[in-house]
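Escalation from tier 1.

The customer reports that the assembly of two entities below gives different structure tokens on two consecutive runs. Tier 1 could not reproduce it. I'm attaching the input and our single run for tier 2 to review.
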Amino acid sequence: MLCVVRNLIFSCAFLLAFGFAVLLPARSTHRSPQEEPQSTQQPTAPTAPPAVPTGPVIILDPGHGGIDTGARGAGGVAEKDIVLQVARTVRGQLSIQGYRVVLTRKDDSNPTYDDRAAVANAYREAIFVSFHVASTGASGTVRAYYDQFSAAAAPQSMPRTTMRSLAPLAGSLVVWDQAQGPYFDQSRRLADVIQSQLARSFPGSPQQSTGASVRTLRSVMAPAVAIETSSISVSTPDALVGAGGLLSSAIADGISALRQSSAAGAR
Amino acid sequence: MPRGLKIVLVILAVAVVAGLLSLRTLRRRLHGLSESRSAEEQARHAVLAPPISTPTDVTVTAQIFWADGPDKVAPVEVNLPLSADPVERSRQLLQTLIANPPTDGQRTLPADTTLSAFYILSDGTAIADFSDAIASELPSGILSEELAVNSIARTLESNVAGLRRLKILIHGQEVDTLAGNVDLTGFFDLTSIPASPTAAATTGASH
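Tier 1 run:
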């Protein structure tokens, strides 16, 4: 008799425990909106979602590096060090503006020309900007270059359409040495806009961009320009390094103008 | 002050004075060496690149493109005895371009550069093979390298008829760049200026 009563008590206890375990969560999941617990905190203003970088990836290429010092100034100032600092400054400025920015070198390494181009070619939509410092030229002037050699490889009477429509068709082969060809027109427009900004920011700079056979640009499958500041012969490199802010603005304007013209062409 | 310390200080002072004196002498000697090296290079240049003269030389007014400011080249009219043979004519022109700029500021190619070889193919392709100095002694930079190439290309284009494009070799080899920036793997166009009948010679020979 005692055993029966004890088993009955255990069974009731088990059933009660089972009932709580199953039913309570079910109740809580079906809570009505009125049953929502009132927060004790003050409602906060909706925060803006973090800026998602859109548009092309900006590839910044600090020229030279490693044993290739580039131009050398008095006191041992090397072009490779100055352009790396400039590229870092420009990266910071463009990132603030919401651009995705990638550097072809982040230290004193010396990627090959093809390695640098490959960084840009890995992205579906990119813009390539290579930084240099000249040995010559009036101090404080800056020049934007597009690849003149690519004019020969550029398709004739190319329609001014969107960036992507200028890219080679998927699955088609691209001659590596002529990869810049389809982008010749865009590169020249980009260089023109950047140069017009540079002429305003750096008095004495040319009004128009220059076509030159710049080796770094040849294999880039994207609009590509080189920007060269004069000159390494300045007494202190601070002025050269400090130009990064103004260069960022000119590059941002160039990218913006290129995207607008591409969008207009697409319409 | 102990006597030993005084002796050491005197010896040190004498050593410093002697060092300063020898430094001055060394500097003078180094300067002399660099001057003699420059003279030596000039002499070597004269031996390696003697003036070219051919039986068909006629003195004409040639247009040699030297630097006109930091970022462009401009023609300078020079009276030169030039050969009727386009290869020899081209060599004469390029030698003048290297050796005789009106001023040092107008120089576009290093003084020690020599033209090792020059060929013209039947399709109008000119091949100019320069010594290493054109790369090793040229100031690095897109601006200076482009100026150098332009001065060569425009000088040939203006004075030798029939040339279509230019290939630049260094020490007999195709190289990636001139001095780190300008692409030498391709051909430079020599047809941007309409041929001038007064300055141009007939082209026929190919090498």
